[in-house]
Design a protein that fits this description.
The complex is a heterodimer of chains A (1025) and B (282). A six-stranded mixed sheet of chain A has the order 4-5-6-1-12-11, with helices on both faces. A five-stranded mixed sheet of chain A has the order 25-26-27-28-29. The longest helix of chain A has 20 residues. Helix content of chain A is 32%, strand content 22%. Among the domains of chain A are: 144 residues, Chloramphenicol acetyltransferase-like domain (Chloramphenicol Acetyltransferase, 2-Layer Sandwich); 237 residues, Chloramphenicol Acetyltransferase (2-Layer Sandwich); 96 residues, GMP Synthetase, Chain A, domain 3 (2-Layer Sandwich), CATH 3.30.300.30; 71 residues, Non-ribosomal Peptide Synthetase Peptidyl Carrier Protein, Chain A. The radius of gyration of chain A is 36 Å and the shape is globular. Chain A contains 27 helices and 39 strands. With 1025 residues, chain A is of the alpha/beta class. Chain B is globular, with a radius of gyration of 19 Å. Helices cover 49% and strands 12% of the residues of chain B. Chain B is built from ten helices and seven strands. In chain B, helix 1 links the parallel strand 2 and strand 3. With 282 residues, chain B is an alpha/beta fold. The chains are: A alpha/beta (1025), B alpha/beta (282). At the A-B interface, helix 22, helix 25 and helix 26 of A face helix 4, helix 5, helix 6 and helix 7 of B.
Chain lengths: 1025, 282
C-alpha cells in the first residue's frame, strides 16, 4: 500500500522510530501491540459496531496515523480516511488464546492502518477487541477510546447520526534542555551490565521476545503491610511496592547500581484527553546500599521517583547515548526490569454498553519487551501482581518463585522496616520447603569406621572373596592376615598411632592390605601415585609429614624415608580375625590425608576422618545397591584420587568383592568390556572423559549395571548414550574437601540440557551462597557450599587457605566453599554450572565456558571440547576452543557455524583448534591452564616469508614494531606474515593508518594484503618513495 | 610494459612469457590458502596473475560483461598468451567465464583448472556475509552484530529474493553500522571507508558471480576437489535444485577446503597440468 501523494509525510520522533526498530530487530513480533477489549453479556450489533469503529477512526487523527519505510527511511503521515474492517468470528477453543493471537499479529510500516478490530462471538457473550500499534496509542488512550466507542455505538444503535468533531493528533513538544541535563546527570556512569539476575539464562541467539506471565494475589498479610507502611513511611503505596521490587531484584543479583523502568503518562494537563503514544518510560536509578533499611530505601525511591516525574518529558530512547553499553545485548540498555503500578478498582472494570453489562478484559500480545515486568494492581481489598517475563531469559518457575518471595519480602519489611536490607529474608515458604526437604539427610550410621565394617565381615566369612586381582583371588581372611602383617611391620618400623604413612603401591590386593594395615596400626594413609614425578611425591611426603612409606613390589622407594615393603599376601600365614582390632581407630581419627592439585600452586593436603569416610561409604553402598547385589565392583580409579576408595571399600562393608582393573581399561573400551563380562561387574565408576572414550566399545556390556560418573560435568549426550546401553546411571559430585561425593543423582531417562547432580548424601547439607555468603533460594546461581559430617577440618598445615575456603555458621556448622557454581532446581536437585573461575566476563559479556563446551559437544563429530580465554578478558581477550574430532578432522571447519547457530554472538569462540588428546591434571581432569598456555602459543599455520633479513633497515624495524604491537606478539621478524599470525582486515587498516601517519605514504589496503610481511611492505614503501 | 592494474602479479617471469590467470578474492587474512601459497609449488616458467576485484557498489547494477571487461582488456593489451585460467571457490565462476571469453577472442583456448568451484546462491551470500560480520566481532557491539544477523535472516527469507539483490541489501544494511563501528575502533574516515567499501566490493563480486554461467567453461575444466563436504562440487552435488555439473576431469585430495591451495600434492598435480598445457600449445 502506498501513500497518497497529497499527504506530506514527516520524520517521526525518536521514540516512534525506536518502536519500529524493535519490530525490525525482532521480526514477526507484536511486542509493540496494545489491546482494548471488553466482553458484553449478550450481543453487539455487528453493523452498528462497524459503523462506530468507522466514526471512531474518523474522529481521531491519531488512529489514522500510518508509518512508511522506504530505503531505510521511516516517515509518518496522517491519512484523510482509513478503512478498517470489523472482522467477525465464532469462538472455537480458548478465548484468551484466540484474542492473544489476534493482538500479537505484527503491524508493518508500509502505510497500512495501525488498528485492527475483531468481534468474537462466544456462546453467550461477545468480545470486541481492538489491536493497536503502540505508535498510535497507549494505555491511557485505550481508556479514552473505550468511552468514545461506547458512546458512538450507543448513538448508532439509537438511530442517531453522531456528529463529533475531529480530534487532531497531539504532538509532544521537544524535551526541555533542563530535563535533558537532568537525565544526563542522573545516568552518568551507569553501566548496563549490572542488571543481570542470578537466575537468568544465557540469552538465546535469536531474540523472540516471546512472553509469558504469572499472576499472584498478595497474601492478606503482605497487603496489610503495604497499606500500613505507606502511612508509617509516608510514601505512596506505589513507592512502597516499588521499593520492595528493587530489594527483590537486588536479592536476585541486580545492582547495587540498579535501574527499574516505570511507565508514566507524559501528557500535560492540557492534553489529558489526547489519543496517541504519549507515555514514557522513566528510568529509576537506585543505588542499593545493603546496610540501608527498608525505610531509608523507600525514602530514596520516593525522591528518585518524584524527581524523575518532574522530568518526564525526555523519552527513555533519548537516553541511550548517555549510557555505557557493556552488556551482551541490544535490548534493554537502560533497564531490564519494569515496575508498573495500576491503581485500579475492580469496579472500574465494569460498565454498560447500550444497557448490557460489559467488562474490560486484559489481552496480552504474547510478547515481553523486558526481562520482567511487574504489573501491580491494588485496591482497598487486595493487590495482585501480574509478572510478565521474556521466556528467552527467565523460566516460568523462576518467576513463580519471585512473586512468592516478593510477598515474603513485604511481610518481612513490614515486621521490621528498620532492619538492614541485607538482613531481610528473601526466601518464600516454598523455597524453604524445597531446600529443607533436600537437606533432610540425617540418618544414623552406627559403624565407627570402615575398618570396623571390614573386620566384622572378615570375622563372619573369612573364606569369602574380598579382592579379585588378575586371575588370583584374595579372601577376607587372607586380606585380614596381610593387613595384620603390614600393621605389625609398620609398628616395628616405629609407626605410632596418629602418624601418617604414605602408600606407594599400585592398585591391587597389596594396596588394600596396606590401607587396612595402616589403620590397624592406628595411622592414617597418604596415597601416592607411583606414576607421579619424584618432585611431586617428595612434596607430598614432606608436607604430610610421612616418614614411612609402604612400597609395592618393583617400585623404588623415595630417598630419605623409611621404606616398608608391601605385604606379599600370598606368603603370609593365615591369622585368626581379631574382632577387637576394629577399635584401633576412632571416628574422629584421621583416615587418610589426600593431596589435590588446584589450578595454581602446590598440591594441598586434605585430612579426612574415619567418621566422614564411613558415613559416606555406608550411604553409597545403600544408594548404589551394593547391599543386595552379589556382583562385584570394579576398582578402576587411581588410588591417589579419593573416589577410588569407594570402589574398594563399599563391597568390603557388605561381604562383596572388588575387581582390580588395569589403568588401560580407562581408555580401552574393549579391555573394560572384557573384564566386565568376565567378572560380571555390577558397578563401575569413572569420569565422563573415560566414559566417552570407552562407551563405543563397552556399551554392549553395560546393560543392567550401575555406572557412576563424576569429577567433571556429565554431558547430556553422553548420559543418553550410557542410558541407551541399558545402564543405571548416577551423576555424582563432590569436592575432595568434603569426602568423595557430596551429592548423587540418578539420571532419569531421556536427559536433555543439563544433567543435575541430585541431592546431598547422608548427614550432608548443601547451600548455595551469594557473593556475600547468604544462602540463595531456588533457581539462583551461586557458590555451592557443603556442610555436614564429610567436611574436613581444613587443609593440612595451610591456615590461610583453610580460612579462605572453609567457614562455619550457626545454621550449617562447618562448611566448605567449593568454588563451583550451582543452583537448586525446583525439585530439590542441584544443577552445576562449572567453576566460579570458569565464569568469565569477556568485554562485559558474562560467559560460562562450560555452556559453550556443551554446545560444541552437541556436534556429532566432536568427542571432547574445552574452551579457554586467551589474553586479557577485560581488553583484547578471545575465546579459543579445543576439540577432539578424531573421526572427521575437517569437522573443525563447521564448528563456527555450528556454534553460531546456537550461541549468542559474543560467546562464539574465535578459534577452533583440533587436538588428538587434551592435557590432563593428576586427577584425570582437563588441564585448562595448560590449554590456555597452548592457545596463547598457537598462532595458526606458520607462513613465513623471506625471514631472517638481519640487516633490517630503520623502516623495516618500524614495521616490525607495528606488527608486534598490533598482533600482540613479541616474536615478529621481517618475514612474519601478518594474516597468518592473527592479523585481520581491521588490523590491516589500522596498520595502514599507522604507516600513513608515520611515513606520509597512504597505502591501499590491498597493498597490505599483497605485501603481508614487514620486509615486503618495506619494499613496497621504498618503491613508493 | 608497466605492471597490470587490475591484476596483481603473483609470479613474474619476464616481460614476454605466457601468463596463467587466477580468479579469487583473497581478502583480509581469511584462513584459506590463496594462489600466493600455491604459486611456489607450480615452478612456473611463465607469469601468474591474480584478479584484483574492482571497487563496486553491489547496488549499482552491473552486468557481468562490464565487470569482466577491464580484466580481459588488460590481458589483451599485454599481448601475452594465456596458458591457463585458474579459479578458487566462487572465483571459479569467473575463471570459467574468463576462459570462454579468451578462447572466443584469441587463437587458443586456455586450460581451465578450478579448485572447489562454487556457484553463488542466496545461502552462499548469507554465509559469506556472516563471515564478514564474524570477522568484525572485535569492533561490532553485540547488539550491532545481532542486529545485522537478524536483518540478514529476515532479508534472506524474503520470497523470491535473488543472490545479487540480497548482496546489495546486505551491504546497504552493513554500511552505516560498519562505518560507525570502525570509527569507534579508531580508524579514521579514510580507512574505515576503504574497509567498508571492500565489503561492498566483495558483495558485488558475489552478486556478479551469481549472474554468470560458468558451466560451458567448467565443462572442459579440470576440477580439484577437497575433502570438505560443504565445499565445491561436494556441496553442489548434494544441494537440492542444482543441476549436475559437467566437468572434464576431477582430481580429489583428502585435505580441507581451506588448505587446498597450500597442499604440496595439489601444487604438484597442477604443475603437471600446466606443464602439459605448455607442451601441447602450438
Amino acid at each position: 500500500m502506498s501513500l497518497d501523494a497529497s499527504i506530506t509525510p514527516v520524520r517521526p520522533s525518536r521514540k516512534e522510530t525506536a518502536l519500529w526498530l524493535l519490530d525490525d530487530l525482532v521480526p514477526g513480533s507484536g511486542a509493540n501491540n496494545l489491546s482494548l477489549a471488553f466482553r458484553i453479556a449478550g450481543r453487539l450489533d455487528p453493523a452498528a459496531a462497524g459503523e462506530a469503529l468507522r466514526l471512531l477512526l474518523g474522529r481521531f487523527e491519531a488512529l489514522r496515523t500510518v508509518f512508511h519505510r522506504e530505503d531505510a527511511v521511516l516517515t509518518r503521515a496522517v491519512l484523510p480516511a482509513v478503512a478498517v474492517d470489523l472482522a467477525e468470528s465464532e469462538l472455537r477453543g480458548d478465548e484468551r488464546a484466540a484474542l492473544t493471537a489476534f493482538v500479537a499479529r505484527p503491524f508493518t510500516p508500509d502505510g497500512s492502518p495501525l488498528v485492527r478490530a475483531l468481534l468474537l462471538h462466544g456462546p453467550d457473550s461477545d468480545v470486541l477487541c481492538l489491536a493497536l500499534h503502540h505508535a498510535v496509542s497507549d494505555v491511557q488512550s485505550t481508556a479514552i477510546l473505550r468511552a468514545e466507542f461506547v458512546a458512538l455505538y450507543e448513538a448508532v444503535v439509537a438511530g442517531e447520526r453522531p456528529e463529533r468533531p475531529e480530534v487532531p493528533a497531539w504532538h509532544e513538544p521537544e524535551p526541555s534542555q533542563e530535563s535533558r541535563q537532568f537525565w544526563r546527570d542522573a545516568m552518568a556512569g551507569f553501566r548496563s551490565s549490572g542488571s543481570q539476575l542470578w537466575c537468568e539464562r544465557t540469552e538465546q541467539p535469536v531474540t523472540t521476545l516471546a512472553g509469558d506471565e504469572v499472576t499472584h494475589v498478595l497474601s492478606a498479610e503482605a497487603h496489610a503491610v503495604v497499606r500500613r507502611l505507606r502511612r508509617e513511611l509516608r510514601a505512596p503505596e506505589s513507592v512502597v511496592l516499588l521499593t520492595a521490587y528493587a530489594v527483590l531484584l537486588a536479592a536476585h543479583g541486580a545492582g547495587p547500581d540498579l535501574t527499574i523502568g516505570s511507565p508514566v503518562n507524559s501528557r500535560p494537563r492540557e492534553a489529558m484527553e489526547a489519543v496517541g503514544y504519549h507515555s514514557n518510560l522513566l528510568t529509576l536509578r537506585l543505588l542499593i546500599d545493603r546496610s540501608a533499611t527498608f525505610r531509608d530505601l523507600t525514602g530514596l525511591a520516593r525522591r528518585t521517583f518524584l524527581e524523575a516525574m518532574a522530568h518526564l518529558d525526555v523519552p527513555a530512547d533519548e537516553l541511550l547515548g548517555v549510557v555505557e553499553r557493556d552488556g551482551p545485548g541490544w535490548r534493554n540498555v537502560l533497564f531490564k526490569h519494569v515496575f508498573n503500578y495500576v491503581p485500579f478498582a475492580a469496579s472500574q472494570r465494569a460498565f454498560t454498553v447500550a444497557g448490557d453489562p460489559a467488562e474490560l478484559i486484559v489481552v496480552e500480545n504474547g510478547f515481553s519487551q523486558f526481562d520482567l515486568e511487574f504489573f501491580v494492581t491494588s485496591d482497598q481489598d487486595s493487590a495482585t501482581v501480574r509478572a510478565v517475563f521474556y521466556t528467552g531469559v527467565l523460566e516460568r518457575s523462576d518467576v513463580e518463585f519471585m512473586v512468592r518471595r516478593y510477598d515474603a519480602l513485604l511481610v518481612a519489611a513490614g515486621a521490621d522496616p528498620d532492619a538492614p536490607i541485607a538482613a531481610l529474608p528473601t526466601w518464600s515458604a516454598r523455597d524453604r520447603a524445597v531446600v529443607e526437604a533436600a537437606n533432610a539427610t540425617t540418618r544414623a550410621v552406627d559403624l565407627p569406621s570402615v575398618l570396623a565394617g571390614f573386620v566384622r565381615r572378615a570375622a563372619a566369612g573369612p573364606g569369602a572373596v574380598a579382592v579379585r586381582d588378575g586371575d588370583r583371588t584374595v579372601t577376607y581372611g587372607a586380606l585380614w592376615s596381610a593387613a595384620r602383617d603390614t600393621a605389625d611391620r609398620l609398628a616395628a618400623a616405629g609407626v605410632r598411632r596418629g602418624d601418617v604413612v604414605a602408600l606407594l603401591v599400585p592398585r591391587g590386593a597389596a594396596l588394600a592390605a596396606a590401607v587396612l594395615g595402616t589403620w590397624l596400626a592406628g595411622a592414617a594413609y597418604l596415597p601416592l601415585d607411583p606414576n607421579h614425578p619424584a618432585e611431586r611425591l617428595a612434596h607430598q611426603l614432606d608436607d604430610g609429614g610421612a616418614r614411612t612409606v609402604v612400597v609395592g613390589a618393583g617400585i623404588t622407594a623415595p630417598p630419605g624415608r623409611r621404606a616398608v615393603p608391601a605385604t606379599d599376601w600370598e606368603a603370609v600365614s593365615p591369622l585368626p580375625v581379631d574382632a577387637a582390632a576394629a577399635s584401633a581407630v576412632e571416628p574422629d581419627q584421621l583416615a587418610y590425608l589426600i593431596y589435590t592439585s588446584g589450578s595454581t600452586g602446590k598440591p594441598k593436603g586434605i585430612p579426612i576422618r574415619h567418621g566422614s569416610l564411613v558415613n559416606h561409604i555406608v550411604d553409597y553402598a545403600d544408594r548404589f545397591g551394593l547391599t543386595d547385589s552379589a556382583r562385584p565392583t570394579g576398582w578402576l580409579s587411581t588410588y591417589s584420587f579419593d573416589t577410588s576408595t569407594l570402589e574398594l571399600m563399599m563391597p568390603l562393608l557388605h561381604g562383596g568383592h572388588t575387581v582390580v582393573l588395569p589403568d588401560e581399561a580407562r581408555t580401552d573400551g574393549r579391555l573394560l568390556a572384557a573384564a566386565v563380562r568376565a567378572h560380571d561387574i555390577g558397578l563401575l565408576q569413572a569420569t565422563p572423559t573415560t566414559w566417552r572414550l570407552v562407551a563405543p566399545e563397552a556399551a554392549e556390556v553395560l546393560a543392567g549395571r550401575t555406572l557412576l560418573s563424576g569429577g567433571e560435568p556429565l554431558p547430556a549426550e553422553l548420559a543418553a548414550t550410557l542410558l541407551a546401553a541399558g545402564a543405571e546411571l548416577w551423576n555424582v559430585y563432590g569436592p575432595t574437601e568434603s569426602t568423595i561425593w557430596a551429592t548423587a543423582g540418578r539420571v532419569a531417562a531421556d536427559p536433555d540440557g543439563r544433567v543435575d547432580v541430585g541431592g546431598p548424601v547422608a548427614n550432608t547439607q548443601i547451600f548455595i551462597a551469594d557473593p556475600h555468603g547468604r544462602p540463595l533460594p531456588v533457581g539462583l546461581r551461586g557458590e555451592l557450599c557443603v556442610a555436614g559430617i564429610g567436611v574436613a577440618q581444613g587443609y593440612h598445615g595451610r591456615p590461610e587457605l583453610t580460612a579462605d575456603r572453609f567457614g562455619a555458621d550457626a545454621d550449617h556448622g562447618r562448611f566448605y566453599r567449593s568454588g563451583d557454581v550451582a543452583r537448586w532446581r525446583p525439585d530439590g536437585r542441584i544443577d552445576l554450572y562449572g567453576r566460579l573461575d570458569r565464569q568469565v566476563k569477556l568485554r562485559g559479556n558474562r560467559i560460562e565456558l562450560a555452556e559453550v563446551e556443551a554446545v560444541l559437544l552437541g556436534h556429532p563429530d566432536v568427542e571432547a571440547a574445552a574452551v579457554v580465554v586467551v589474553g586479557d578478558a577485560g581488553a583484547d581477550g578471545t575465546l579459543a576452543a579445543f576439540v577432539r574430532v578424531p573421526g572427521r578432522p575437517e569437522a573443525v571447519d563447521e564448528l563456527w557455524d555450528h556454534a553460531h547457530r546456537q550461541l549468542p554472538r559474543s560467546v562464539v569462540p574465535h578459534r577452533f583448534i583440533a587436538l588428538d588428546a587434551f592435557p590432563r591434571t593428576g586427577s584425570d581432569k582437563v588441564d585448562y591452564l595448560a590449554l590456555a598456555e597452548l592457545a596463547a602459543g598457537h598462532h595458526g599455520p606458520t607462513v613465513g616469508g623471506d625471514a631472517g633479513d638481519a640487516d633490517a633497515d630503520g623502516l623495516t624495524a618500524t614495521l616490525v614494531s607495528f606488527f608486534a604491537e598490533l598482533l600482540g606478539r613479541s616474536d615478529v621478524d621481517v618475514g612474519s606474515h601478518f594474516f597468518a599470525n592473527g592479523g585481520h582486515s581491521l588490523l590491516a587498516a589500522t596498520l595502514a593508518q599507522r604507516i600513513r601517519d608515520t611515513t606520509g605514504v597512504r597505502l591501499a589496503l590491498t597493498d597490505v594484503f599483497e605485501n603481508p610481511t614487514p620486509a615486503a611492505l618495506a619494499a613496497r614503501l621504498h618503491r613508493h618513495v | 610494459m608497466s605492471n597490470p592494474a587490475v591484476w596483481s602479479v603473483v609470479h613474474d617471469a619476464g616481460t614476454d612469457t605466457d601468463v596463467v590467470l587466477a580468479a579469487d578474492f583473497p581478502v583480509t587474512g581469511r584462513n584459506e590458502g590463496g594462489f600466493v601459497d600455491l604459486a611456489p609449488g607450480l615452478n612456473l616458467d611463465c607469469a601468474l596473475w591474480q584478479t584484483v576485484a574492482p571497487v563496486r557498489d553491489p547496488a549499482a547494477t552491473t552486468s557481468g560483461d562490464d565487470y569482466l571487461e577491464p580484466w580481459l582488456a588488460e590481458v589483451a593489451a599485454s599481448g601475452r598468451t594465456v596458458r591457463a585460467v585458474l579459479g578458487y571457490c566462487v572465483g571459479s565462476v569467473f575463471a570459467g567465464v574468463l576462459a570462454e571469453k579468451i578462447a572466443a577472442r584469441g587463437p587458443h583456448a586456455p586450460r581451465v583448472v578450478v579448485f572447489d568451484p562454487e556457484m553463488v546462491d542466496v545461502p552462499t551470500v548469507h554465509l559469506q556475509f556472516g563471515r564478514v560480520v564474524g570477522n568484525m566481532t572485535s569492533v561490532l557491539t553485540a547488539d550491532e552484530a545481532t542486529g545485522l544477523s537478524a536483518t540478514a535472516e529476515r532479508l534472506a527469507a524474503r520470497p523470491g529474493i535473488g543472490p545479487a539483490e540480497f548482496a546489495a541489501d546486505l551491504y546497504a544494511v552493513f554500511t552505516p553500522v560498519g562505518t560507525a563501528a570502525l570509527g569507534r575502533a579508531g580508524l579514521d574516515e579514510d580507512y574505515a571507508g576503504e574497509l567498508v567499501t571492500l565489503v561492498g566490493s566483495f558483495m558485488a563480486y558475489l552478486g556478479v558471480a551469481a549472474g554468470l554461467d560458468p558451466r560451458p567453461g567448467w565443462a572442459r575444466a579440470t576440477v580439484i576437489t577437497s575433502g570438505s563436504p560443504r565445499s565445491g562440487l561436494n556441496r553442489m552435488r548434494t544441494a537440492p535444485g542444482v543441476a549436475p555439473i559437467e566437468v572434464a576431469d576431477e582430481r580429489r585430495f583428502e585435505v580441507e577446503h581451506r588448505d587446498l591451495l597450500r597442499t604440496p600434492s595439489v601444487a604438484e598435480t597442477v604443475a603437471g597440468l600446466l606443464a602439459t598445457s605448455s607442451r601441447t600449445r602450438p
